[in-house]
Amino acid sequence: MKHRVFVAIRVSQKLQEEVVKWTSAHTRLPVRWIAPENLHVTLIPPWYEEAIERVEVEVANALQEAHPFPIEFETVSYGPTPKNPRLIWATGTTPQELTTLAKNLHKALKTPSENRPFQLHLTIARFRSEIFSSIPLKKLDERVVWAQTVDAVELMESHLKPSGAQYETLARFPLSRAVS
Asked: Which of 25, 27, 55, 61 has the greatest CB tally within 10 Å of its CB?
């Protein structure tokens, strides 16, 4: 059986609460908000896979040298491009550790890397680009300070439903602690 899987960083409880606080101030926007428990930073986008155990071994091997590191979101805006917005996302400066993590996972899993540099982003809402003209707030560029420490990576399965995707953790891989 094929599973729709991806590799991601789960958002911490504290960061979920920050996002919920932000979204509650913007409920008038006609978008589909991502449920707090589904918030994540995607490292490897979804693909269909049968050999889950093999993927677990490859992810674990790719993470052997990885250590916990901080990430910080600085701006909430429309994305992925101003000319074709279809989501609301939080972005921030991409730490080198995150870029390296994504690169190592792509290599281990033999998945194609994107043609653009990896960008730290957190999708918090989705909408169809054709409805953007009906959204009352045309410019969205709000400063935030949302941070967390990345201390684990998860192999997740995406269950597509009419109400939006729901995500299930198949395996969690804690990042090793640096020896002091």
From this structure: 55
